[in-house]
Write a structure and sequence with these properties.
The protein is an alpha+beta fold and about 90 residues long. The protein has one domain: Alpha-Beta Plaits. The protein is about 30% helix and about 40% strand. The protein is built from 2 helices and 5 strands. A 5-stranded mixed sheet has the order 4-1-3-2-5, covered by helices on one side. It is globular and about 40 Å long.
């Protein structure tokens, strides 16, 4: 049985805006990863990725590379207790 993983991510750099959140959602959906993403008032982006461990790590690696146009400076991730979630939501 595949291990489940939930990551809580804080992403810094030039990542604010609807387009970055949509990019992240598309990537998560491509790997069947659930969770959510939102902008924080301090300019960072907060995200939770949840699902099969290998898939979650793929999306985390994509974020660490810096998606096209995003200029991601840093992704700080922390494992949190696995919480099954349905779908991937873009929050305001």
């Amino acid at each position: 049985m595949e291990q489940k993983l939930t990551l809580h991510l804080l992403i810094s750099g030039r990542v604010q805006g609807v387009w970055f959140r949509q990019f992240t959602r598309q990537q998560a959906e491509a790997y069947s990863v659930n969770g959510w993403v939102r902008n924080l008032p301090d300019g960072r982006v907060e995200a939770v990725l949840s699902g099969e461990a290998a898939a979650v790590r793929q999306v985390e690696a994509w974020l660490n590379k810096g998606p096209e146009l995003a200029s991601v400076a840093e992704v700080v991730s922390a494992e949190v207790e696995f919480q099954p979630v349905e779908g991937f939501e873009v929050r305001r």
